[in-house]
Amino acid sequence: KQLEFSLEKPNLYNINIFIFLYKKTMDRLNASSDYYYDDTYFKNILNLKNTFFGIIKDNDKEITSICILLFYKKYIHYHLSANDKRYNCSQNFLFHELSNKCLLEFPNIELIHLGGGVKDGDGLDKFKSSISNVKFNYHIVKNVLNNEIYEKLKKDFIKENQNCNLNFFPIYRQ
Predict the structure, then answer these.
(1) 8 A C-beta contact, residue 103 and residue 126
(2) Strand partners, 55
């Protein structure tokens, strides 16, 4: 099948397709709970002004691969992606077209940050490293900035979700 790439602003349709494919992708990869987000997280992306989806569609205009791209000044951050397992190779096409089309449509872009894998040297990290040899240190920091508000959110979440994992942080994201 012929594949086609497009950059699109988030809308309710493509956000819902992303959520569906993302959850299927995470299930297929047996991802840890850290990689599952609630629908509200994704729908809030609609409110970000410099966010696009990189989308691959087949001949029938069905979305086969999709990624969230966060634009900031001269940079693009490749945030999250998902694909239909029937079109696994479309992810490779997505990376190829992403670099070509983004740099053509946005000539001021100096860097597309792809991120890494789940850990150094895993399949995703190796794949992304095959595209570029530029590496950055990347850290996820989990801080509570306002303990009073966090404790209230935590208490409310536990009340509504009595079987939740009390060790998960932040607790309300599980």
Answers:
(1) no
(2) 6, 66
Query: Which residues lie below 8 Å from residue 49, measured CB to CB, with a gap of 6+?
Result: none
Buried b (16+ CB within 10 A) or exposed e, 105-143: eeeebeebbbebeeeeeeebbeebbeeeeeeeeeeeeee
63 and 20 Cβ atoms separated by less than 8 Å: no
Handedness of CA 114, 63, 24, 169 (dihedral sign): positive
Q: Please state, in angstroms and rounded to a whole number, the distance separating the CA atoms of residues 155 and 87.
A: 43
**Cα–Cα distance for residue pair 90/167, rounded to 1 Å:** 37
Q: Give mean pLDDT in consecutive 10-residue pieces for the chain, a chain of 174 residues.
A: 89 93 91 85 85 92 92 91 80 84 87 79 77 74 88 92 85 78
68: closest CA among 111, 109, 24, 115? 115
Strands 111-113 and 75-83: parallel
Cβ count within 10 A of residue 95: 21
> Which residues, other chains included, contact 170 with Cβ-Cβ below 8 Å and sequence gap of 6+?
142, 144, 150, 153, 154
